[in-house]
């Protein structure tokens, strides 16, 4: 739909940027912090580890000063569970102290924190004790952690997010500790999905009790699915992907209902995934204030007959186009590439219009305010003569912000926008080769170098966008976009 007039961004629009604790803080065993599943995992990969990352733990004052200079009105960060509860059970006051200092510094600069309670980094001790999110005990342990955060940080924080990308972590189990030996992947997926939905509800209830005026919501990763062709079988495959990957978990959390197609699919295969009436009731009484979603790319789905061999998706670890392994889910859908779109060196397909489609689909289905809590381009950046010319990133962000403005013009209520990432940080799948930040961090995977911060071209560009409340987009600087 074309618009005759484009609506401006709301006056109180949250112009942000995002990070996550284990990707940016470092200091992984300092001041009483315990090991998280991320700390354990990364020591055995070839890319990186969590010990130093971008050293934000020691340099947060300098980093917040840069946020202020960038003009951010909000900053999305996550709280490291193992700073607060190193072993998942015993409180560590030094962890509380760190976040209090960080929040106070942000507020001094008029930057509102948006806090993710869980971003992939639960205590290794809870993984060892009961397989982390596979165990029911996680609901209580996560609620205890969240209650402490509400009590200790409620004076500083107005916006909370419960669990980051509960829908994606079940697709990529290694992101959160993996599937325990002897358990089937699909069984693990639905148990984790269920436990996360119940934990989400429990935590929202707890937030309502302790901080009645705070706003809280879930966060999902949404890659909308296009049919590979207009063959109705492909159209059905795309609907399958949307329903199984995104709408099933979100319907559960936001509407307290289970998608019947998904329930039946598993029932036919001998798995009963129905929640009890009490569980659904709990969820219905703990509804979110908004939905946060992370959007990087769209997907393509094609028909995948039942007799196809199942394959799981695999990240492109090499940073050369063509390395991503598309999944095949027999009877549901198979992934495919999109010939109409450019892609990053890690095969993430660049699709600004897909963001508008995502806004429309989510807003129509749930009628809750939305915010984009991650969006950005992972790329090789080159630090030359003290400068980082990342016009490709400016181009990516500009196109997406313009589509967001069209969504606002469509009538969607959009609360805020948080590009990933404020500064360079350890990529979840690709270390420091793949960078997203407005601020360059002088290090690579094998050498910590100076860890000094440098502003990229995109920093100065976003600064103008924020300062003009998005109006600068309507008069783009051609040179920057060349
Ligand atoms: C999201 C995660 C982020 C971030 C991002 C980019 O799914 O929430 O933590 O890592 O993806 O992914 P990557 O770092 O693998 O490029």
Shape: globular
Query: Can you tell me the CATH topology?
Result: TIM Barrel
CATH class: Alpha Beta
Give a list of the ligands: 6-O-phosphono-beta-D-galactopyranose
Strand order of the largest sheet: 1-14-11-7-5-4-3-2
Question: Which percent range fits the helix content?
Answer: 25-40%
Q: Based on helices, strands and strand pairing, what is the structural class?
A: alpha/beta
CATH superfamily: Glycosidases
Mean pLDDT: 95
Number of helices: 16
Architecture (CATH level 2) name:
Alpha-Beta Barrel
The oligomeric status of these chains comes to: single chain
Number of DSSP-assigned strands: 16
Would you kindly provide a written description of the structure presented here, covering whatever features stand out?
The structure is a single chain. With 482 residues, the chain is of the alpha/beta class. It has a single domain (14-221, 256-296, 346-474), classed as Alpha-Beta Barrel (TIM Barrel). The protein is built from 16 helices and 16 strands. It has an eight-stranded parallel β-sheet with strand order 1-14-11-7-5-4-3-2. A hairpin with a 3-residue loop joins strand 9 and strand 10 (333-336). Helix 9 packs across helix 12 and helix 13 (352-366) packs parallel to helix 14 (391-410). It is globular. The mean pLDDT is 95. Bound molecules: 6-O-phosphono-beta-D-galactopyranose (BGP). 6-O-phosphono-beta-D-galactopyranose (BGP) binds next to loops.
